[in-house]
Amino acid sequence: MCRFAVALGRFNNAGETLVGIGNSLVQAASMDPYGKKFLSEERHEDGWGILFVNVVSSSAFHHRSVRAIFMDNPVNIIRGFLSNVNNDDAVLMMIHARAASTGTPKNIFSTHPVRAVTRDGFELYMIHNGSFHRDDIAREVGIDKDYAARFNDTYIANLALANRIKGDITKDDLAWLLKFVRTGANLGIALVEDGYVTLIVGSYYKVLDDERRETREAYYRLYQCDIPGGVLYASSTVIDFYRPGFVGNCRVLGNGEYHKYRISASGDTRLIDTWDFTA
């Protein structure tokens, strides 16, 4: 399981904002009270990764490491990217700390954001908290079982989604992917094209009426928060325990609620759709 944050907007003080978010994720990955209570999983130490996109200057930076985020130096990486960002630039940041599910590979390819190329030749990135039925996805789209076994479920899910979409990510595309959810699909998905980025971000997890119902909800809770110049989506631990001081009002996304954004080269960042998948 994992913790993540997605930030998008035009930030007057991008350094303070994005570094602050990164630091909160580092703390959440190093000590996760919700993870400890729900899964006896206190630390997210099986790699981390980050995607930056400056849509205005058509630049992207994708970094992954198999080291724990709290043993690495994410702040220097964030500052390095921001050295080429102007205040008026539209920026997307997706950052993720991984705790590998039992029996899944621990390698650079399985570290999020995972990357694939669509049939149109554009880049598709995914971060994920939860799990898919990897082998079922592979079987459905004709991926060899031995090949699929080399990667985690998120890598195979993103590969299959990249092969499915044509021109855009539709609600039907996401509905197809959610058929394969094993536990949950808190997702950030970025389609990077010429001149704009499409972002899908949202929350879904399977509701079970058992003794862990409340701890499951707390673990999978995903927040949408106001930040100066933009919006932040973050895992529950980031906000409930390590919330940066500049974060404004927050709301919890409904189970099955996903938002679709379009970020253009002009700097315009718009929420263009809200999708509801009944849990």
Element layout with pairings:
Layout: E1 2-9, H1 14-30, H2 33-39, E2 48-54, E3 59-65, H3 74-82, E4 91-98, E5 114-117, E6 123-132, H4 134-141, H5 145-148, H6 153-164, H7 171-178, E7 181-193, E8 196-203, H8 213-220, E9 222-227, E10 230-235, H9 236-242, E11 250-252, E12 257-264, E13 269-276
Antiparallel strand pairs: 1-4, 1-10, 2-3, 2-4, 5-6, 6-7, 7-8, 8-12, 9-10, 9-11, 12-13
Question: What does the model show?
Answer:
The protein has helices at about 15-30, 35-40, 75-80, 135-140, 145-150, 155-165, 170-180, 215-220, 235-240; strands at about 1-10, 50-55, 60-65, 90-100, 115, 125-130, 180-195, 195-205, 220-225, 230-235, 250, 255-265, 270-275. With about 280 residues, it is α+β, with helices and mostly antiparallel strands. It has a single domain (about 1-275), classed as Glutamine Phosphoribosylpyrophosphate, subunit 1, domain 1, CATH 3.60.20. The strands form 2 sheets. It has a 7-stranded antiparallel β-sheet with strand order 3-2-4-1-10-9-11. Strands 5-6-7-8-12-13 form a 6-stranded antiparallel β-sheet. This is Glutamine amidotransferase. InterPro entries: Ntn_hydrolases_N.
Name its key features.
279 residues, seven-stranded antiparallel sheet, six-stranded antiparallel sheet, 29% helix
